[in-house]
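Structure ticket #2291
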Amino acid sequence: MKIKIILALLFLNSCLLQRVKEEEHIELITNPQGEGIPLVAEFTKGPAYNHPCLAIWLEDLEGNYLETLLVTKYVATGIFAHGETQPGKWNVEPGSVRRPATLPYWAHKRGIRASDGLYIPSPETPVPDAITAATPKGNFSLDTRSTVFPPKKFRILLEINQAWDSNRYWTNTSYSNDPDYFGSLQPSLVYATTFDTENGDDPVFLNPIGHGHPSGKDGKLFTDLTTLTTAKEIIHSVSVRLKLKP
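Resolution: structure written out below.
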């Protein structure tokens, strides 16, 4: 009897673990009405993953911005889980927060200014819902489609940043007079790859190419990544492939 009970418990635990494993992977769909190139991105989180903000977008080979495929809702709307009542003071309720250091490379590439002069979206100038989503809690796939028709070869980029992600190089005293820096600490990390539509559905992997400005004051790409530590462990891998018709 004891053996049967043990076997039954092991079976139940196995089923629960399998269910948790299945629930960890989330499927996102953005821009379903797009008539351009259909793409599937596979995102596998790393050990430091903890609700980061991110954006995925397209550029031509000369680095000209084409369009955004996904941006997390906090950044897209300018409404975060905890509103800022004054610099360094937070509300328990959701509210508007201006965080230019979150995804500065994407924001400046996109080139749309809000009324306060910042390039990040605001509640008055949000990103369209069709390309936004809440930050997935775990691994996810993105099923998306462009609205533009880029050339056969183009670039796919991703920028990711995790709030309050400090290390011994990026601390609260690094930029003591810059309040925009405090919410980020380690700066955003930018990944990229070149995509060729003639490669069929063979996946290509994005690799880190630099980081954004520590406080988001400009859209420059800084290629020295030696001081970034856990920021490099937010993502384990990101691949993109062409979605062929079934």
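Closing remark: Residues 84 and 90 are 5 Å apart (CA to CA).
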